[in-house]
Amino acid sequence: MSASDELDGPFEKRFVALGDSFTEGVGDIDPSSPNDCRGWADRVAAQLIANDPSWGYANLAIRGKKLTQVIDEQLETALAMEPTLVTLYAGGNDILRPAVNIDGLMARYRHAVKKLVDTGARVVLFTGFDSAKAPLFNMTRGRTAIYNEHVRKIADDLGTDLVDFWHMKQFQDWRYWDVDRMHLGIAGHTEMAKQVLEVLGETDEIEDPEIDELPPQTLVERTVDHVSWGREHLLPWVKRRVTGRSSGDDMSPKYPELTSRVW
């Protein structure tokens, strides 16, 4: 077996990340990474591998996926990898739809989480972000709160770990976010990686994210900024929703098979 082969298993420990753009890493721009983004999950995986070379990592998340798509398209693939650690976040794209049956969705979510837990893997779930200070998206805050109550109950009932994004108030600072205001930026994904490693109780050697000071803006400058954001980011997002398209159409997972080569 060559040194290159040894980098791709077999692995004693197997971390599989499931979800949508949050877990894929959208906003953490990195042209050297698959799909041109890195993200908190890749950063966690790199730290785990640095701590213990017996780890392998797969990231099946694809941007734009709704909860049922994540379950239908990613769950069985993840189970086949016999994971020892799984992270799952899904449902954010459902919450943003005009109509959504959260209770029905979370019944499917619970069933999927139970299947993961029953493998003996350590499972990590996430609550949704508190959008109280997010223009337009704050209208979905009540839905997210209901979603979060389901997640917390499922985590408690099934004995999973929980990353409580809702209560991480540092993310109310928009310098942690990408210019699209929908995804975490480099600083945000870096901070989230550190939060996940804390929940896992793993050694964290990731440097604190650098947060640049923002120059003060006049009312006119803020208005121009909001208009520009609406034109460049919000309208394309709305158009995709209206036409039934997704930003993840025709995209493949970043790391569809277990590897220790995380860029």
Automatic annotation (TrEMBL):
Pfam entry (one): Lipase_GDSL_2
Keywords: Hydrolase
GO molecular function list: hydrolase activity
Gene3D superfamilies: SGNH hydrolase (3.40.50.1110)
Entry keyword annotation includes Cell membrane: no
Residues in SGNH hydrolase-type esterase domain copies: 17-189
Record region (Disordered): 244-263
InterPro entries, per the entry: GDSL_Rv0518-like, SGNH_hydro, SGNH_hydro_sf
Keyword Transmembrane: no
PANTHER family per record: GDSL-LIKE LIPASE/ACYLHYDROLASE, PUTATIVE (AFU_ORTHOLOGUE AFUA_2G00820)-RELATED, GDSL-LIKE LIPASE_ACYLHYDROLASE, PUTATIVE (AFU_ORTHOLOGUE AFUA_2G00820)-RELATED
Protein name: SGNH/GDSL hydrolase family protein
Source organism of this protein record: Nesterenkonia aethiopica
